[in-house]
């Protein structure tokens, strides 16, 4: 029970990697609050957790809207007390052209994939500073360091998240608050499975470049996240944990 007596707040927690993080945190003894725009999936997961004797709270909120995010965060605090750990998981993909992408499309994308990492810190840090402790984990991507054509501006956003992670770690260390990033590679979420199914042979091709010969599962990311949220990682801060099966070590 690595997270006993912890209150973890997760963004984008209804499906995929986010849901796996919510589940694993609850399994490790945490009280978990999470938000998402998918109400049906969020309510279903919260009900499953509560019905199994765990403590979970779900609220609908769009991380790009600070008032919605703030309201959901305050509801979580009112229900379960101060947040001791934050996981910034919410995000969207972008396959834009640098010439045709509009200013609004750029702003809308960064409002989901980068800005909320700061906004959740803005909400959680006052109580963490007062308590002299806390952990923030930002879900980044292998694209923060390595990318390939067609992922503009996704790589830029994930690189920015890594930079923000480092600076928050340096700035908040004096309050004994730790900030780290986790960068998944190919993970078998519903989104990934849909992409793989869209073209014959795509799964085999993707697996052929994986050093472990397979893609990862969401719970394999979650286990690293819960470690970083726990008191078993008290001297880990400002780091980027690759959960990519070794893909980032491979040369083209």
UniProtKB/TrEMBL annotation:
Gene Ontology molecular functions: oxidoreductase activity
Domain of life of the organism encoding this protein: Bacteria
Keywords (A to Z) from UniProt: Oxidoreductase
Gene3D superfamilies: NAD(P)-binding Rossmann-like Domain
Family indicated by similarity: Belongs to the short-chain dehydrogenases/reductases (SDR) family.
Record protein name field: Classical SDR family protein
């Amino acid at each position: 029970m690595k997270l006993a007596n912890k209150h973890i707040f997760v963004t984008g927690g209804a499906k995929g990697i986010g849901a796996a993080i919510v589940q694993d945190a609850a399994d490790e003894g945490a009280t978990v609050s999470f938000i998402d725009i998918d109400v049906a999936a969020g309510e279903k997961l919260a009900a499953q957790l509560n019905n199994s004797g765990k403590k979970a709270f779900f609220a609908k909120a769009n991380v790009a809207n600070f008032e919605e995010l703030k309201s959901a965060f305050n509801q979580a605090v009112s229900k379960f007390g101060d947040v001791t750990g934050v996981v910034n998981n919410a995000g969207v993909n972008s396959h834009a052209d640098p010439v045709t992408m509009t200013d609004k499309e750029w702003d809308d994308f960064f409002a989901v994939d980068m800005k909320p990492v700061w906004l959740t810190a803005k909400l959680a840090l006052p109580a963490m500073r007062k308590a002299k402790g806390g952990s923030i984990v930002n879900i980044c991507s292998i694209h923060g360091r390595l990318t390939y054509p067609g992922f503009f501006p996704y790589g830029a956003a994930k690189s920015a998240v890594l930079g923000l992670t480092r600076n928050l770690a340096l700035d908040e260390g004096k309050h004994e608050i730790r900030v780290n990033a986790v960068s998944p590679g190919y993970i078998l979420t519903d989104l990934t499975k849909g992409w793989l199914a869209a073209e014959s042979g795509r799964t085999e091709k993707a697996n052929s470049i994986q050093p472990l010969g397979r893609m990862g599962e969401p719970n394999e990311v979650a286990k690293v996240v819960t470690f970083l949220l726990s008191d078993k990682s008290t001297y880990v801060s400002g780091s980027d944990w690759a959960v990519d099966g070794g893909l980032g070590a491979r040369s083209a």
